[in-house]
């Protein structure tokens, strides 16, 4: 089976076996229907066992699956009249981020998201969904436009991270990300962010200062990729699996840490198994999210975002005072 | 031997390789060797010159205590949130021990020190990051202390000045570290919208999540000479693009050349220049129309 992941191999193998048996009974003279039934029951149990007990690393694999639906896939299911806008008006158009205007069930919105490619050729054009500064600046331009026309903003987050390149640094990668965080703070419209794949570091956060942050069940959101974390912490990128476990990067982890508002259920085995059903799942969460936020005034929306981020983090106080004086 | 200090170096008859102990035979504390030009100088003199090398103007790194002493009017500093400390939200192995060790070593509780003070009698809120504590990395406490300092500046209606020195986000607090970038930026935006003045002074090193949040959000973005400033690490970039980067890549001077900074200012002139900027931002200045 194409795109099969290692941890789900027992499932695909059993499926194959059942298919073989079925094929066999068609031609042979024996009745294997009870065996097949038994196997099918086992398959169901196996599927539940495997897909409901996924390890962080398994989820990383699903989040990175080449067939995992992208921003543009979801846009085609969720919105009507999508009109894509290009360019940052200063340097160029970064195709690692797409954005434009559309309607959600008739409601005018602005939609922005990281965009991976489906094949090598498209991936090269889209730089594997890793933005340059002009990408963040395009996103900000569209957000300001949404603010002007009082349209809610929906951001899809799906990137390994900011592109670690020479040109990106020269053109002010740090400043571009920082400016997005800064400006998103004062948007007077609802901002809803949905992590649909990998949410990697500053490149993800640059589209991530929302009133609500939702995450697909098998997506990840982290300060650095598991490989990068392993390289920094243990000087060994091959310990990525261990890093994925200790860094707490899965949707349930982020919910627990108070970063994410809602986990969006995924189709069994991952969103790529059934894009249409997955899109419908997102649609209902998005609808409810919009309904909650659109009841807030402009000022309340800005305060809501302020308080959301102010509350993230854990700290305590020492009883004795130790200062630098 | 004391007299050896005064005798000129004789031409050596044979090559010698200094042993590890011999390399460090400059008495700890009394003399300092400039890591850039290798010149040896009196530590006291160096400190008096704000730790700027007399010979090559290399800016030796400063901890938060030295920075505050060099920048603020004496005895004007009042620290806030000094005893806020980190938790271990991810239950990361050894994290608590590492924090305790750094608290012991540096005598500060986290990688940023915040408070109020004056610069030539002009009141400010200041935040100074300290790279001797966990590489100045930003976790929940650094984000929260900086945010509270910004809120303090807003409350007092005084300028907010931050000295950055950080390796970036703190790995051991995972995504919570990432979110501190958003938290601090959101607070800066509110302060800015209320008319607050923000001055960022980037010192060596200012990288990763810190450079991609408050460090880059000043009304004036300044840096010390030679400071390393950038988002992605040099090695990662070299591996990604498979070419060698120029020598001055990601230095303060490189950023100035590429339009990312307002100015690179030598430490010895910093206080006066900042004081001048502050003075220009006094409401109305000291201007008066002249009588005919």
Automatic annotation (TrEMBL), chain A:
Which pathway, per its entry? Lipid metabolism; malonyl-CoA biosynthesis; malonyl-CoA from acetyl-CoA: step 1/1
Q: Which Gene3D superfamilies match?
A: 2-enoyl-CoA Hydratase, Chain A, domain 1
List, alphabetically, the InterPro entries matched. Acetyl_CoA_COase_a_su (IPR001095), ClpP/crotonase-like_dom_sf (IPR029045), COA_CT_C (IPR011763)
Entry keywords, A to Z: ATP-binding, Cytoplasm, Fatty acid biosynthesis, Fatty acid metabolism, Lipid biosynthesis, Lipid metabolism, Nucleotide-binding, Transferase
Q: What is its EC number?
A: 2.1.3.15
| Domain CoA carboxyltransferase C-terminal as annotated: residue spans | 35-292
Question: Catalyses which reaction?
Answer: N(6)-carboxybiotinyl-L-lysyl-[protein] + acetyl-CoA = N(6)-biotinyl-L-lysyl-[protein] + malonyl-CoA
A biological process term (GO) from this entry: fatty acid biosynthetic process
GO CC term, one of those recorded: acetyl-CoA carboxylase complex
GO MF annotations for this entry? acetyl-CoA carboxylase activity; ATP binding; carboxyl- or carbamoyltransferase activity
Query: Where is the protein situated, by its record's location annotation?
Result: Cytoplasm
Q: Which PANTHER family match?
A: ACETYL-COENZYME A CARBOXYLASE CARBOXYL TRANSFERASE SUBUNIT ALPHA, ACETYL-COENZYME A CARBOXYLASE CARBOXYL TRANSFERASE SUBUNIT ALPHA, CHLOROPLASTIC
Q: State the protein's purpose.
A: Component of the acetyl coenzyme A carboxylase (ACC) complex. First, biotin carboxylase catalyzes the carboxylation of biotin on its carrier protein (BCCP) and then the CO(2) group is transferred by the carboxyltransferase to acetyl-CoA to form malonyl-CoA.
How does the record describe its quaternary structure? Acetyl-CoA carboxylase is a heterohexamer composed of biotin carboxyl carrier protein (AccB), biotin carboxylase (AccC) and two subunits each of ACCase subunit alpha (AccA) and ACCase subunit beta (AccD).
Provide the family line. Answer: Belongs to the AccA family.
Q: What is this protein called?
A: Acetyl-coenzyme A carboxylase carboxyl transferase subunit alpha
The lineage, from the top, is: Bacteria, Bacillati, Bacillota, Bacilli, Bacillales
User: Which gene is this protein's source?
Assistant: accA
UniProtKB/TrEMBL annotation, chain B:
Give the EC class as a word.
Answer: transferase
- Where are the C4-type Zn fingers located? 34-56
Q: Where in the numbering of this chain does the CoA carboxyltransferase N-terminal domain appear? A: 30-292
Give the main localization category. cytoplasm
What keywords appear on the UniProt entry? ATP-binding, Cytoplasm, Fatty acid biosynthesis, Fatty acid metabolism, Lipid biosynthesis, Lipid metabolism, Metal-binding, Nucleotide-binding, Transferase, Zinc, Zinc-finger
Q: Which reaction is recorded as catalysed by this protein?
A: N(6)-carboxybiotinyl-L-lysyl-[protein] + acetyl-CoA = N(6)-biotinyl-L-lysyl-[protein] + malonyl-CoA
Q: What role does this protein play?
A: Component of the acetyl coenzyme A carboxylase (ACC) complex. Biotin carboxylase (BC) catalyzes the carboxylation of biotin on its carrier protein (BCCP) and then the CO(2) group is transferred by the transcarboxylase to acetyl-CoA to form malonyl-CoA.
What name does this protein carry?
Answer: Acetyl-coenzyme A carboxylase carboxyl transferase subunit beta
Name of the gene: accD
